[in-house]
Each structure stands twice: as C-alpha cells, then as structure tokens.
Amino acid sequence: MDRHGCAVPATARHEVGVALYTGQAGDLRDAPALAAAAEEAGFDSFWVSEHHGIPDGCLPAPLVLLAALAGATSRIRLGTGLLLAPLHHPLRIAEDAAVVDRLSGGRLVLGLGLGYAEHEYRAFGVPAAGRGDRLESLLGMLRQAWTGEPFSAPGLGLHDVRVTPTPAGRIPVWLGGYAPRAVDRAGRLADGHLVGRGEPGVIDDATTHLGAVRDPADPGFTRAVIVTVVLDEPGGGAASARSAFAAQQRMYESIQDGRNVYSGLTGTGTGGGGEDGDGAGGGLLLGSVDEYVQVAGSADEVVRGIDAVFERLSGWARVHVILRVLFPEPDPAVQLARIRTLGRDVLPRLAHRRAPVTPR
Questions:
Q1: Phi, psi of 110 (to 5 degrees)
Q2: CB neighbours of 129 closer than 8 A, spacing ≥ 6?
Q3: Phi, psi (deg, nearest 5) at residue 272
Q4: Sequence-ordered list of residues with C-beta below 8 angstroms from that of 211, at least 6 positions apart, any chain
Q5: pTM as predicted
C-alpha cells in the first residue's frame, strides 16, 4: 500500500528521463554528448521534440536525430516527445521508427502528438480537420506495419504495402495531449500517455480520464510526465536555465496564441513580463518564468518535488518522470554539468521510486 492506503501494483516500475532536446540556439552535434552524459549519469531515457519553421532552429526531424543518438548510447531509451504524426506520411513514420529501433537495439519510445501550430499544417499542406481520427487509424496501422507482412489501411490511403525491416522488438507508442478526447484516446489505444507540463492539476485531470478507460495496474501502460526542473545549486546552471527557458517559452506562446493548448488546465496569466523586464520573465503570459517551473531549489527541494510527482501517480504500475533540464543554451558545457550534477546529487535519492516495488 502507498501512504494514501492505495494498492501498489506488484509489477510497478518507475523511471526517470532527461528532456527536452530541441536543437534551438545550439549545434545539433552537441546532442550525442548530452545523451551519452545522461546515460552515464544513470538516467533511463533521453527525449527530443519536433517543430517546424521556427526562426531559432527548433528541431524538425526527431527520428533522424535519434538515429544519431543510438550510436552514441547503449542502454538509455530514446524518445520522441512528441513526433507530430499528422504532418508525416504514415508509412514513413513506420519505416523510420523501425530503423531507429534497429539501430538502437530496441530502445525507441515513439511519442506521437497532433501539434497545435497552424503554420505547420499549412507548410505541409495537411488539413487539420479530422487529425484525431487519422491518429487513431495510424496506431492500428503501425502495429500491422511492424509485423513485416503485407497489409492495407484504406483510411490512410495504404493498399497492399509492407514495411521492412521490422523493429528490433515491440516499439512502445505513447500519445500526448491534454483535452479529454486526447487523454481518452491514449488510454484506450496506446502504450502510454505523455504530458509536457507536469503541473498537479494537469496530472490529476489525466488520472481522472485515464482511470475511466485503463486499469492503473496494467503493466503495459505508462504514465509519463515532463517536469520542468531548475537546480539552484553549483552545477545546476540555474541562471542560464531560467533565461533560456524564458526565451523558449516566449516562442511557444507566440505560436500558441489564441489556441487552448492546455485544455484550460493551466493559468492564462496577464502578461506584462513581471519584474524581470526583458530578461528571464519578460513578455511571458504568467509573468515570471518560475511560474512555468514545476520543481526548483536545492538538491533536497528538487528530490522532494520529483518524489511528490511519483507519489501523485503511485497507484499506476508504470510511471516515467522526465526531467526537463535541457534548454536552448549556447554553452553545452552548462547542460553537461547540469546532467552530471543531477545524476550525482538527485538521482540516487530517487532509487526507492525507480526500483520494482514489492507489495507489503
């Protein structure tokens, strides 16, 4: 039993990952060293994202980069958080994912989402209408495709096609999303649900919707949460993290303008930039950048904050907490030091969460 008196699944397994490499304001050739450092520090996964047409060079090709990271690592799982599925041909997703899974020895986690930026749909000439239905069709199609046998998916325009080579193993497919329909879709059809903003209200809302369609004790389903973390200690590069994250958040808010991206689950703010002017918080809807950070402070405070996220999800068999500690900073040495510091001062103190749990 957990401390709330809820049963803890006998097969419980929890993991901690590193996110979110976006390629902004940096050299893509830095990514292999960052992934290797995360692996050496003891983390369980490394995540990259996707956006298109962003002036600061946001990564547009997550699976291409993961193919490079596969050769720089040997143990750590490699994830897309998220690949914008409607923008890609379904057969290309199946083939590229299979190749990355082969290159990594079966370490790919394929996170899929719909996206929200209208300019991306326009750029690819893809209609936004019906994208949720197409994503549902894609999930079934991927499982067929990865058998290596001929198949058809008429709803996606595929007739008597085959995907080779097949993946090294069964690729976990996780879905993102905040709206009730998106969360329901993940619970019904996917191997996991990933939210990119790990605030308590967001987590609890997803728990409500997922619990209605998925057994929390199911070891085949993962609750995944990205938690933005700032370590205010030597090696944490806190000032650099806050400045870079604020700039990144301003970019996101510029393309989210007018869209209910978080389904009303987060604050909307009043803007104005708070007390930081044009620096760490300037121009942000919520004012200070710290309003977007879920866990911050000393190593002790960071451990407690991450542990609280695990506690919030303690009734679920598989939980993957992904620490958003990579920001678009010009000096990769700051990021490398942060990963190593977290691996030394924080990760070992979460060992009780990461080990398989035996019922008491």
A1: -95, 100
A2: none
A3: 95, -15
A4: none
A5: 0.92
